[in-house]
Automatic annotation (TrEMBL):
This is beta-galactosidase. Pfam families: Bgal_small_N (PF02929), Glyco_hydro_2 (PF00703), Glyco_hydro_2_C (PF02836), Glyco_hydro_2_N (PF02837). The lineage of its organism: Bacteria, Pseudomonadati, Bacteroidota, Cytophagia, Cytophagales. Its EC number is 3.2.1.23. Monomer. It comes from Arcicella rosea.
Length: 924
């Protein structure tokens, strides 16, 4: 009996406490993964002119209504396309006598609200901001109520359209974020603004509604698991609707940063005579943000380099309607790329995205919308305050941005400071303003010049535009290494995170990026990882490994640099793994590493305790994990060089006789089941055939960006090998070619050649092979992603298998890794054909192989360049870089420039040498 009484008592206490808190009742779902159907009528476009239903929240285009619009599109239905919503709801009887608000987290774009046929208030103009109406007098408690919402896709306010609707992004309509009712006591806490700095000073401004004089406002700080921190802070109310300030000191709090996102919570209560009237809980973090002019940005006293990306709120099947799960997915991907910051482009995000940034640790630039146009001052003031009230207490938000690329209303700048208790810095994206140079897409030489010759803090809010496969990783290492050592650099933000491919319900579900307008992501629409993803992960690793050649006298010591701001390397963990690839069964050994004591921004070493037989392995991997056991990166260090691997694979001796005949213009060589035809005047391979038939690999070697001037061939038999070789002539045949056919059936090609100029886009040799005959490859080298000259980082050395695909980066089918392109550090490659296979092995270091030619993308700016040699399959010693939408390859930094070859004198000793071995009979 006593136990039952205790349970009832605790339930009553719980209900009493709940009754004093702000309570929510969702009328919609909470995201694209949980929706509620409302009645719906679309006035123009697809499926218009009839009442039906629609999930809320959603963008109506993705549900088959209205018209799809990209921001640049001329829309003849502009102003005509509206959505009419109806929904019936009940207000709980327990809410009687309380204040009842209806809250819209985001509606595109103008919103008229009626409750039971009566207006809830003035039309809300602006798409990305949470707003509410007090509907206490309009609802019938305990009965059915009718909610009617009219949403205009384009605003009646011209400045809203300029700021929001004329952007370089998809334009949607609809109630795209949740809608809910909230109830509060008539006397309540209306708003809480918190400021908790790195010294432990806690400030709170509490905005009260209808409070009585002599009521008490108090605050108690807790850890997230409920442990009290200090004593309650209290202040009496002296006016009904005043702002009450509370201040306290917390000793040695755990600070919030992107590396250590420590958080607390505070419970604020309005009470009278020891009775709680209203209670509000807020999470926060202790941290400080300071801008030192002509110096940099400091968080908690540490100078920060932002490794950031721009992020649209986006999902392909639901447009701007997302979910907590999508926010978690996106932030985890950013953290996995070793990013520490994100810019909200070009509008404020969902609340749950900021919650995840708070909990996992990302610095956030929160943006008042304005692409190339801006809000007028009255509208902007209202929306700015809505932005502030919604986002101000998130410790992740460390900057406000007042518009983008000219979309700045200067009259709003002081209002940020007036409204923000934390006085966070305000910047203008793409403008020199307030001591920051945030200009976008400056070419390497110009942008780097700003570090050396200017006085502003340089922090591009967009750089290395990622259209298709350009930008992002391509050029990043050049930019970042200069940013890292430049005192005036505060890092930067890549454009952008995700390809915005939307499912077109009007085009049979095709994923549409509006051509090249929205194919700018590091990841695809469903977060498919492109090659640049892994380049960024390595280049932005907070642990930097110094380049190291592993030689026989390697003592296990690797030099590293700590590029964290707050983390000692001894908080991370390291492990090593040795792999051997030559044997039939993969052989591995692994071990752990003692993490050294290396403080932020200092250098040191790690010492690997490798087994005595480590030299018998082919590669050493070293993996670093952060304090939360998430992988930072895995680095590869080659042990075996190509000549060693080639020696173990290529079999030269054999009992079969190599025969050669000359018929007309051809040398015909046969051994075992192999028959080769080589042109006796040019030395080019004409035909390969074995017992299974013809292998369509021929017409090579053609020297790329040089002369294919092999001449005056002779043949001889030496130690059972047939050798066909050209004659060197300084004027007419300075490039030389030698074929050796061994009794084993292996074929050796040795080319000595001179690139055609001092500066070359690529150099090496080409062969022909019909693309429609390839099924895939298996190779030993860096993989699994293709590379560009200015995007070499991110891969690992190993043995990789790839099936043929026609993926073009940023386009359907978003299947990665791509197949066609350049691959680095080739040791051997097995080409898997539809009819039969063949293998190519090299004993040269630093060889690239090229697989066919990706499709050229149309770029109106003519900066995005895909440069490939002639032929189909190439073996190269220099490859091309790639440009971006905003910069040509050569303007993206030294790595994007052409290859330089100084030994131009036509003497044999100065020539480049390329040696390949071919197995056309299946020896390997």
């Amino acid at each position: 009996m006593k136990r039952n009484f205790l349970i009832i008592f605790l339930c009553l206490i719980s209900c009493f406490v709940k009754a004093q808190e702000t309570q929510k009742l969702y009328l919609s779902g909470t995201g694209n993964d949980k929706t509620v159907n409302w009645d719906f009528f679309c006035t123009a476009g697809n499926n218009s002119g009839k009442w039906t239903s629609i999930p809320v929240p959603s963008n109506w285009e993705l549900q088959g209504f209205g018209k799809y619009n990209y921001g640049f599109a001329k829309d003849s239905s502009r102003g005509k396309e509206k959505g009419l919503y109806k929904h019936t709801f009940k207000v709980p009887n327990a809410w009687k006598g309380k204040t009842i608000n209806i809250v819209f987290e985001g509606v595109m774009t103008d919103t008229e609200v009626k409750i039971n046929g009566k207006s809830a208030g003035v039309t809300h103009e602006g798409a990305y901001y949470a707003f509410r109406y007090d509907i206490t007098s309009l609802v019938n408690v305990g009965e059915n109520n009718l909610l009617e919402v009219t949403v205009a896709k384009h605003s009646a306010n011209a400045s809203v359209n300029e700021a929001e609707r004329k952007g370089d992004f998809w334009i949607f309509g609809g109630i795209f974020r949740p809608v809910y009712l909230e109830t509060l006591p008539t006397q309540h806490i209306e708003r809480v603004a918190l400021d908790a700095d790195d010294k432990g000073i806690f400030n709170a401004n509490i905005y009260l509604k209808n409070a009585k004089v002599s009521q008490l406002i108090s605050a108690q700080i807790y850890t997230l698991d409920g442990k009290k921190i200090g004593s309650p802070i209290q202040q009496k109310v002296s006016k009904a609707n005043e702002i009450v300030g509370l201040k306290s000191q917390v000793n040695s709090p755990l600070l919030w940063s992107s590396e250590k996102p420590n958080r607390y919570k505070v419970i604020l209560t309005l009470s009278e005579n020891n009775k709680v009237i209203h209670s509000v809980e807020k999470k926060f973090g202790f941290r400080s943000v300071l801008v030192k002019q002509r110096d940099g940005v400091y968080v908690n006293g540490k100078k920060i380099k932002f490794k950031g990306v721009n992020r649209h709120s986006f999902w392909p099947t639901s447009g701007r309607t997302t979910s907590k799960e999508i926010s978690l997915l996106d932030v985890k991907l950013m953290k996995d790329m070793n990013m520490n910051a994100v810019r909200m482009s070009h509008y404020p995000p969902d609340d749950h995205f900021l919650e995840v940034c708070d909990s996992l640790g990302l610095y956030v630039m929160d943006e008042l919308a304005g692409w190339h146009g801006n809000y007028d001052t009255p509208t902007g003031t209202k929306l700015l305050k809505e932005l502030m009230v919604h986002d101000e207490n998130h410790p992740s938000v460390i900057f406000w941005i007042n518009g983008n690329e000219g979309g700045h209303n200067y009259e709003l700048d002081p209002i940020f400071q007036q409204e923000d208790i934390q006085k966070r810095p305000v910047i203008h994206a793409w403008e020199a303003f307030a001591g920051f140079d945030t200009q976008h897409y400056r070419e390497y030489n110009y942008g780097i010049g700003n570090y050396d010759n200017g006085h502003n803090i340089v922090m591009p809010t967009e750089f290395l535009h990622g259209m298709y496969d350009g930008g992002h990783g391509a050029g990043l290492e050049d930019y970042w290494e200069k940013m890292w050592v430049s005192p005036l650099s505060a890092g930067g933000f890549l454009w952008d995170f995700v390809d915005q491919g939307i499912v077109r319900t009007d085009k049979n579900g095709v994923l549409d990026t509006d051509g090249n307008h929205a194919a700018d992501g590091i990841v695809g629409p469903y977060r498919e990882k492109e090659g640049s993803y892994f380049t960024i992960k390595e280049v932005w690793s907070p642990i930097k490994f110094e380049a190291k050649e592993i030689t026989p006298d390697f003592d296990g010591v690797l030099n590293i640099e700590n590029r964290y701001s707050f983390t000692n390397i001894n908080e991370c963990t390291f492990s090593w793994k040795l792999k051997q690839f030559v044997s039939k069964s993969l052989v591995e050994k692994s071990g752990s590493v003692v993490s050294p004591n290396i403080r932020p921004n200092e250098k040191g070493i790690i010492k690997l305790s490798l087994p005595a037989d480590w030299q018998t392995y082919d590669v050493l991997y070293v993996t670093a994990k952060d304090a939360s056991k998430q992988e930072i990166f895995t680095w590869s260090f080659k042990i075996s060089l190509p000549n060693k691997i080639a020696e173990s694979i290529v079999k030269k001796s054999g009992s079969d006789e190599v025969k050669i005949t000359t018929i007309d213009s051809l040398y015909t060589i046969s051994v075992k089941s192999l028959q080769l035809s080589i042109n006796k005047f040019t030395g080019l391979l004409q035909k390969v055939q074995n017992e299974k038939g013809v292998i369509p690999f021929n017409n090579g070697p053609i020297v790329q960006e040089g002369a294919t001037n092999f001449k005056n061939f002779s043949q001889r038999v030496e130690n059972g090998n047939v050798i066909i070789t050209s004659t060197f002539d300084r004027k007419n045949s300075y490039n030389t070619l030698e074929w050796t056919i061994y009794p084993s059936g292996w074929v050796k090609m040795k080319v000595n050649y001179f690139p055609g100029d001092y500066f070359t886009t690529f150099f090496g040799v080409n062969f022909s092979f019909p693309e429609n005959q390839i099924k895939g490859i298996e190779y030993m080298g860096n993989g699994p992603f293709r590379v560009w000259k200015n995007r070499m980082k991110g891969n690992q050395f190993g043995v990789w298998q790839k099936e043929y695909n026609t993926t073009e980066t940023g386009e359907i089918p978003f299947l990665y890794p791509e197949f066609k392109g350049y691959y680095s550090n080739m040791y051997w490659c097995k080409f898997i054909g539809k009819e039969q296979n063949f293998t190519v092995v090299t004993e040269n270091e630093d060889i690239f192989f090229r697989l066919f030619t990706p499709a050229f993308k149309q770029d109106p700016y003519k900066n995005y360049q895909i440069n490939f040699p002639n032929g189909d399959i190439s073996f190269l010693q220099g490859i091309a870089g790639i440009g971006s939408k905003t910069n040509k390859t050569e303007n993206s930094g030294p790595m994007g420039m052409k290859n330089i070859y100084y030994d131009y004198e036509k003497e044999p000793a100065r020539a480049k040498e390329l040696i390949l071995y071919f197995d056309f009979v299946g020896n390997k």
